[in-house]
Write a structure and sequence with these properties.
Strand content: 5-15%
Distance between the termini: 47 Å
Strand order of the largest sheet: 3-2-1-4-5-7-8
Helix content: 40-55%
Number of strands: 9
Shape: elongated
Structural class: alpha/beta
Number of helices: 11
Radius of gyration: 22 Å
Largest sheet: 7 strands, mixed
Order of helices and strands: HHHHHEHEEHEHEEHEEHEH
Length: 343
Amino acid sequence: MLGSVGDAGGAAARAGPELVEVLRRHSDPRYFNTACKLTGLALLSYRDTQDPTLAKRLGGLGLAIRSATRQLSTRLQQHLIVSNDNRPDMQDQKHTSDEQQRTPHTGRMNARIAVLTPPGGRLGRSLVASMAEQKIAPAAVCWYAPDGETESLASNYSTAWYPAAQAQPPNAVSVPAEIAAGQARSWRHVVDVLRMMDIDLLILSGMPVVPTQVLATARLGAINAHNGALPAVRGMDAVGWAVITNQPIVCTAHMARARADTGEIIATTTIEPTPTATLAARVRSAQIRLLETAAGQVAATGILPDLTAQQGTPCRYYRLHPHLKRILDASPYNNHDEEGELV
């Protein structure tokens, strides 16, 4: 293992001059993110080998990282953060929750719906509970816990960056006992469980990339809520990347296809960046609202909502390096003093 790390680290360090030049010439922060990862790999190699040539290259990389850090921090300081002060529901009036504003589904259920989610994923549990309140409770839930994980398994996106949040409600969201549930520990097992459920629509919540054979278990296919605009912000840590690249924070309901985040768009909603203390909760609420609205229409009609092919230039992002998360934490987007109610 050390040999492979050393070889990879040496290769990363040898690419140092090219990395420095890329960071100097390109403003795309994805290059910065990759440079941080490669620099860490080169540092591990140096600790193992104490190669003086490697030390010199690491010095050049360190200077480039420091310069890029300053540039990104300056850009974040100069972003125009739109305030919610002109929204009466955030200031002068008591905010009415989404649950109070919604009208429960009262018609005949024309589709069987299932939710696939990790057992410890708060988004999935909240979605199922909210759908039940709106009288569009899924016929079943499949808890995906691979490799023998326990009920504490969290969402695939539990490590994503968000601003420092207000205290969360202490109690875990409970799923109504009348909803049938199955647990699967492998993708093959997921397919078997979902086929037994005989479903029309599959809703994904907090899942990693799902194999095609799983998506094919539902007659109408599978839908997902992505916390980024599509196709502009595909991939991981979409909120953090939207902040870094000064793009709107958008939640998108879309069809789940074999390639992640490439499916047709069902609906979108834009999330105000402030108050930042409630951003994570408001993104989660928006995702729930998108998914349950789509589920309600499918339940009422038995068919999918109108779908729109993704337009524009695709751009895929990857998991944020901890260093970029620290830069975000030091930016105006991580304001610990803001007030606001959880949505």
